[in-house]
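## tool: complex_structure
## caller: assistant
## args:
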Amino acid sequence: MKPILELKNISYSYHTPEGETQALSDITFSLAPGEFTAVVGPSGCGKSTLLSLIAGLMKPESGEILLNGEPLTENSSRIGYMLQHDHLFEWRTVYRNVVLGPEINGSLNEETRQKAEEMLKQYGLAQFASSKPSELSGGMRQRAALIRTLLLDPELLLLDEPFSALDYQTRLNVSDDIGQIIRDSGKTALLVTHDLSEAVSLADHIIILSERPARVSDIMPVTFSLENDTPLGRRNAPEFKNYFNRIWKELNHHE
Amino acid sequence: MNKISAGQDLFLRSLKRHRLFVLIARILILVLFLLLWEVCADTGIIDSFIFSSPTRICACFWEMVLDRSIFLHIWVTLYETIVSFLLVTLVSILVAVLLWCSRRLSEILEPYLVVLNSLPKSALAPLLIVWLGATPTTIIVAGMSVALFGSIMNLYTSFTTVDQEKIKLIYTLHGNRRHALTKVVLPGSIPSIISNMKVNIGLCLVGVVIGEFLAARNGLGYLIIYSSQVFKMNWLLMSIVLLCIMAMVLYTVIGLLEKLYKHRI
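## result:
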């Protein structure tokens, strides 16, 4: 199948007057449509930089990023990006936060409004549509942020540790919940995380990055022989700890 | 209504008592001060010609109410203060937005803003009189000059300290810098714009009174300077009291505006 996203020999460095820090070095991988891929690596290795490059917020210093076989245009509307924090604006209601995307690109019409309302209903936020974000729980806020991203109907979804700001229990629930929503929507997703169990429970492939400057040290396919392949089911399956240990070893064997 | 527990009831009562105490103490201080002043002036402990007294101030005020001259003075000062305040608010928001739009411009202009802000503005007033004449325009500009530069710097700072991740969010939703300004920076800065307004209204009043000292035929500032020259201490103290009240009322109006905003969102 033709890949939806291809990265070819991507490198990127940060520059300050004190000197240069290479964040990414010669990164190459591709994503097939409908796949859920996770990127794991030591903290500070440049995982978020990678997503910013794919989202077109920054330009790689060398290498090429192809989206559907074409060079990435700046800030493509086919890419949705979920940040670490939900960043719901306190001066807007939940509903007006959710429709921020269409409002910005000028497509806020009857159709998108209706879609927003349907999605709020579908994800159990309908009765909070006119509440302030501060009245929502952490999990509900993250769901509202997901609706905000999905409302622009992106083909490729980038997730930058979207659960890391939540407390542990909420985090398990929300990552399972949101992982399921994304799987059901059939979208291609690229999740950056430092939580190995989150990666194993959600992804079809796991890309393991090395210490900075980050290189791809392994791409590991993840398959579970489960009838009902849910994140929670995976966490309880016997293969789970095998994958976990393999990634753990891969991450630590350079030290 | 839910039934209130004994502990909660006790807490609410002590809170109420505390508030009542503060209120009574505040009023008592004022009343005692006025009483002491009055008694001292009447019994000759202080010279009532120099220190005046509350009753003399009231009588003087009433006299000027009857001949309607006080209303003109109050109105002129109020009008000049409000106009310069509105202009300061508008201009400082516009300039701060401009500076936010171009980081290079703000970096270039920074030392000039710092110098203009630390300059004692009363030094400018004589200059303004020569340039603009002894007109209300001069006084309005004098009022603006006191507040403007600090206001620009405060607003610009609050614009630039908006969470960068929120701006990144706008870009991830495929917005541009204009969207970052209108969807994040401005709405997110409304609380600091309002608190900035609270400071500015007081500063504008200061500037207007300075301006009136030097270049006016009307207004409370003029009244103060004139009465000090002819030793009409009743007029002078009355004008100061009126300025106090005016400052308080203007501040309260902006406080109400703030409450209205908080209530709306």
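## assistant note: The beta strands of chain A are 5-16, 19-31, 36-40, 62-67, 70-71, 79-82, 156-160, 188-192, 205-209, 216-221. The CA atoms of residues 132 and 232 of chain A lie 31 Å apart. Handing back to user.
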